[in-house]
Amino acid sequence: MNQINQTQPRHIPVLVDEVCTFLISDPSGTYVDGTFGLGGHTRALSSLLNPDATLIGIDQDRSALDQLSPDSIQQDLHLVCTNFENLSQVLKDLHIAKVDGILLDLGLNSFSLDDPERGFAFGLTGPLDMRFDRDNPLTAQRVVNGYSEKALADIIYRYGEERYSRRIARRIVQMRMDKPLTTSDELKEAVVRSVDRRFQNKSLARVFQAIRIEVNRELEVLETILQTALDVLSPQGRIAVISYHSLEDRMVKNFFRDRSMDVPLQPGMRDDEVRIPFLKRISKKPVIASDDEIAANPRARSAKLRVAERTNHAS
Fold first, then answer.
1. Which DSSP string do the residues of 209-256 spell out, in sequence order?
2. CATH of the domain at 248
3. Tens digit of pLDDT for each residue in 129-184?
4. Residue 89 and residue 226 share a domain
5. Domain range spanning residue 149?
6. How far apart are CA 293 and CA 82, in angstroms?
7. Average pLDDT, the chain
8. Domain contains 71
9. Disulfide-capable partner of 160 in 99, 204, 206, 295 (CB 3.0 to 4.6 Å)?
10. How do residues 258-313 score in pLDDT, each as one tens digit?
11. Strands 304-310 and 279-281, sheet pairing
12. Same domain, 228 and 101
């Protein structure tokens, strides 16, 4: 039983009321927060669940989990430091076969984002790190200085959807010939020197996003956890995903659609080609933050919540 440490940095969970409304199907059930962060969503879920419910918090960042101190969350709370792609093993270790809800908030928590030493934000000076898991051997510095110009351009274009990806990659390679790029300021300089002043902030956000996705294998991991959800969710159990950029949202939308019961039968499809619907989409359109929430928490501006429910069909 745990309580969030009251001395921790302030963090406002995104779309928290909507998450609780959509996710809870059984107030005595088992719920997984796969991106625990500072525990804001878990704390909100706890306030609405019965004392005999079970909560599981997963996060790669040990420093975030270490913000907890004993007391107050009334349910059993299991905290596990690992990547949420390992959910199946986590549940096996806890001797839990099925869960009633899975939450994935794919954004960075404020604790990590505002820490210059983590290197996530181009507005802060710090080392080129960008790792969620500090034991991960691949850092942003290794990507920026070790990848070929073509590989860098491909990453920036694919994961950042940045139109000037080749120009930026060329500049990075030119700069690292003099000395390795080791700080967020140096990567920022490479971008700023490559694009028109009008587009600099957007390009910076895209490049930092792209490098971060590469370092943490974010899209690969998301694909794994979505598939895992089909195996571990109980019938009528739900998965709720909050995404913050189009690549993640598109992946979640397509996965929910392709495995839902409202996919129309295609002309000429044989009976043996018809897929069993494993999910029912609860929110066919993404749920977004209200104007009031955005005013209180600007980071909610780009958040999109999608929810799906496990059907009774066996996987």
1. HHHHHHHHTHHHHHHHHHHHHHHHEEEEEEEEEEE-SHHHHHHHHHHH
2. 3.40.50.150
3. 999 988 899 999 999 999 999 999 999 999 999 999 999 999 999 999 999 999 99
4. yes
5. 116-216
6. 30
7. 90
8. yes
9. 206
10. 998 766 666 776 665 556 789 999 988 999 999 999 999 998 999 999 999 999 86
11. antiparallel
12. yes
Chosen domain end from 216, 240, 275: 216
- With CA atoms as reference, report the closest residue to 263 among 281, 237, 249: 281
The answer to whether 311 and 277 have CB atoms below 8 angstroms apart is yes
Handedness of CA 92, 96, 100, 102 (dihedral sign): negative
Look-up of token digits 């993640």: 248
CA distance linking residue 169 with residue 214, whole number of Å? 15
Angstrom distance (rounded) from CA 301 to CA 291: 9
Phi and psi (nearest 5°) for 261? -85, 0
Instruction: State whether 290 and 251 are in the same domain.
Output: yes
Residue 288 DSSP label: E
Q: 208 falls in which pLDDT band (50, 70, 90)?
A: very high
